[in-house]
Amino acid sequence: MTTTTDGAAAGTVSRAEYCVIACAEAWRGSGELLASPMGLIPGIGARLARRTFAPDLLLTDGEAMLIGPDGEREGWLPYRQHLEFVAGGRRHVMMGASQLDRFGNQNISCIGDWRRPTRQLLGVRGAPINTLNNPTSYWVPKHSRRVFVSKVDMVSGVGYDSAAAAGPSATRFHHLPRVVTNLAVLDFDTPDHTMRLASLHPGVTVDEVREATGFELVLPAEVPYTREPTGEELRLIRAELDPKGLRHREVPA
């Protein structure tokens, strides 16, 4: 039996629920910012943030509507306004990644030499404009060396070293707040913006994360654990935001 931070008995908090909490925290203190979560657990996390500590957060259905935390329509989001949010830095997207390197360069385009790839993926899509114009975080449901690589095969989302090489026009609004995985939370809060282990999900060890990462992570002197959910957050996740338990399909217990 574990207890939540408000002292309420919670039973066992699942790994998926810690991931929801870690994703929700990406939008803490955002104010009236457009949250664009891509994936089931990031979506639950954004809605949880809206229901609790980020009431001014704007949520999108991924197409043309603004929606409330219960999925009800709140307003129309025409494409031109969506682009204004992006270009003005008033959007925080949480994307997926097929590959990520130590500076946060993301690949969702291909595996192997881009001229003759061994695997064709989604394509670059909106990753460059996302990473150069508004905060971009990442969600990785299976932390492994296949994803966390020393060098991405193709840069889709721009990392800190690539932005610096491109100059001030690329670094002005570039910001990668965090990477959430099924094992841990990572960030780039280091002098040279290389990836750092920010927190471990309870039950995970530093060695597990290092073994699953294809480069050396920056390690603080003491690595904290991802925060516990409150009793009300668990109730919302389990009873209202994901009553069918789909989160456990993405991150099994």
UniProtKB/TrEMBL annotation:
Protein name listed in UniProt: CoA-transferase
Classification via SUPFAM superfamilies: NagB/RpiA/CoA transferase-like (SSF100950)
Superkingdom classification of source: Bacteria
InterPro entries: CoA_trans_fam_I, NagB/RpiA_transferase-like
Family, as annotated: Belongs to the 3-oxoacid CoA-transferase subunit B family.
Pfam family, one: CoA_trans
Native species: Streptomyces kunmingensis
UniProt cross-references to SMART domains, sorted A to Z: CoA_trans
